[in-house]
UniProtKB/TrEMBL annotation:
Alphabetical list of SUPFAM superfamilies matching this protein: Ribosomal protein L29 (L29p) (SSF46561)
PANTHER family per UniProt: 60S RIBOSOMAL PROTEIN L35/50S RIBOSOMAL PROTEIN L29 (PTHR10916), LARGE RIBOSOMAL SUBUNIT PROTEIN UL29C (PTHR10916:SF0)
GO biological process: translation
Gene3D superfamilies: 1.10.287.310
UniProt name for this protein: Large ribosomal subunit protein uL29
Keyword 4Fe-4S: no
Family stated for the protein in its record: Belongs to the universal ribosomal protein uL29 family.
UniProt keyword terms in alphabetical order: Coiled coil, Ribonucleoprotein, Ribosomal protein
GO molecular function terms attached to this record: structural constituent of ribosome
Coiled-coil zones: 6-65
InterPro entries xref list: Ribosomal_protein_uL29, Ribosomal_uL29, Ribosomal_uL29_CS, Ribosomal_uL29_sf
GO cellular component, one term: cytosolic large ribosomal subunit
Species this chain originates from: Rubritalea profundi
Highest taxon above the source species: Bacteria
Amino acid sequence: MSTQINDIRELSVQELSTRLRELKQEALTLRLQQATGQLENTARIKAIRREVARVNTVLTELRTKAAK
């Protein structure tokens, strides 16, 4: 289940950090499943990677806005 960018922008910095940690943990789990041949939905890796990028983008936007 991917999150829309507007939903991500509504989160606080703390919530974004937590979400990023959860996504990275899930990405690790998926990579381990892929390495052991247990991964069924390979497209999930791509979706997680893109969602991590979205969260990082919003975090950068917030930090840039706060610095000004």
